């Protein structure tokens, strides 16, 4: 039996509170939408601020009144503030397995994995000690995107040079038989070898 949405009783405590550190923000937002959908709540914007606390509530409070009413804007603000990059989360997980490594050491180890040119670009301009792991990752991605574009351009240029030089090399180079040392045939097609096999 369908009960009109206005007559439904909805327990807000079905949705866990989100403070920004208790669970991943993407997972929490999906649970919020699922519970609201199952309970027939059409306006998620009226429920969302009620379940925010601590840092997450502070992020919501920093939005303008108009943006606070827009669920999409609130979600974007929460995602921008609390969504960890999967790569950073993986690095931190590895660090906890190693007994808890500081962010500074993690940054240094991260940068050491790049080529010398990329390491130099990452280290110049800004002190690495002042960057968080997230900022360093964003900087590394920007450098690598630029490097891949330059490498792609250089690779195309090198391919053109190789293609123009390849025709000359093929004309001058002859295929040699390993059985008789003759030119332009392989051992399995060697006339001297086939002649001895046929006479036997």
Automatic annotation (TrEMBL):
Keyword rRNA-binding (UniProt): no
Xref: InterPro entries: Znf_CCHC, Znf_CCHC_sf
MF-aspect GO terms: enzyme binding; nucleic acid binding; zinc ion binding
CCHC-type domain sequence ranges: 176-191
Keyword Metal-binding attached: yes
Domain of life from the UniProt record: Eukaryota
Keywords assigned by UniProt, alphabetized: Metal-binding, Zinc, Zinc-finger
Protein name according to UniProt: CCHC-type domain-containing protein
Species assigned in the record: Trichuris muris
